[in-house]
Design goal:
By secondary structure, this protein is mostly helical. It has helices at about 30-55, 55-60, 65-80, 90-105, 110-120, 120-125, 135-160, 170-200, 200-215, 230-235, 240-250, 260-285.
Length: about 290
């Protein structure tokens, strides 16, 4: 029988459970966290640089939300068909919902990009780096969120032109931007999770188109939840878009909102979305 030499530490596996998650020898946990945060920010920046080469997507995606405000919003404001809380103008009630809708429409097809990266061989190269899969997904998710900020700015400016009284408080505007980023991050993770299951752009497009409008119409973006039938109210309560819209209304037009609950739900949904996407990423990369 042999024994280990005195003073020699027991052998450990050279590979961490999650590649890139373990620190370097002697590296403190705060240093590990800073290194991972730096990788997420770098990946997010790489994603955003793509906008500089082709800004057409931002312009074309702003058309549909503008039409919702100009046509749907103006018409229903005049006919008073939908009762709103506190008697606020319907256009003001609608604007935060359309803001959330525009972010949803950007994020829900984000998985197409990751499938394109797989086909181009980019995803395989990223997977062999020491960066954790969760960091890869987080960088892409928050890049989608920052893209949505551009759309949100367009909706806010258009709403102001149409006479909607939005808050001028910079802290509330920053909080609304954070809510938009969180909502977009979740829906982009949902899209990337679907990409890990569908494995092809055509299937992802079909699934995305099938779920986008149900997500929108089953939320409180267009009408108060109390006007919905009971079964639709139940769906609305588990729809993250409803919590995003509720928070945006409270921050931008001052309606009664549950900001604490809305934020907790969006953060929790985003964490679950990142986890699911990271688990499915190897399946997509095969």
């Amino acid at each position: 029988m042999t024994s280990a030499a005195p003073g020699v530490p027991p052998a450990v596996s050279a590979e961490p459970a999650i590649p890139g998650l373990a620190g370097l020898p002697g590296e403190s946990p705060p240093a590990v966290a800073r290194r991972l945060a730096s990788r997420v920010v770098t990946l997010c920046w790489v994603e955003l640089r793509k906008i500089r080469h082709d800004r057409t997507e931002l312009y074309t995606r702003a058309i549909q939300p503008a039409l919702w405000l100009l046509i749907f919003g103006e018409t229903f404001t005049r006919i008073h068909a939908i009762p709103t809380p506190g008697g606020i103008p319907y256009l003001a009630y609608l604007a935060p919902g359309i803001l959330a809708q525009s972010a949803l429409f950007i994020a829900i097809f984000y998985g197409i990009q990751i499938i394109w990266e797989r086909d181009a061989g980019v995803l395989t190269k990223l997977m062999v780096t020491p960066t954790p899969r969760a960091a890869l997904i987080t960088g892409k998710a928050f890049a989608a969120g920052v893209r949505s900020i551009v759309q949100a700015a367009v909706i806010i400016v258009l709403s102001a032109i149409l006479g909607v009284a939005l808050t001028g408080n910079p802290l509330k505007l920053l909080a609304a931007a954070a809510i938009v980023v969180l909502g977009s991050a979740f829906f982009s993770c949902l899209s990337m999770s679907i990409a890990g299951l569908a494995l092809s752009r055509d299937r992802l497009m079909g699934i995305g188109q099938a779920i986008t409008m149900p997500l929108f119409f089953s939320s409180n973006a267009l009408y108060p939840e109390r006007l919905m039938p009971g079964w639709l109210q139940a769906i609305s309560k588990v729809n993250p878009l409803s919590y995003e819209v509720d928070a945006l209304r409270g921050l931008l037009i001052g309606t009664q909102a549950h900001l604490g609950l809305d934020t907790v739900v969006l953060v929790g949904a985003t964490v679950i979305g990142i986890t699911a996407s990271a688990l499915l990423l190897p399946r997509l990369a095969r």
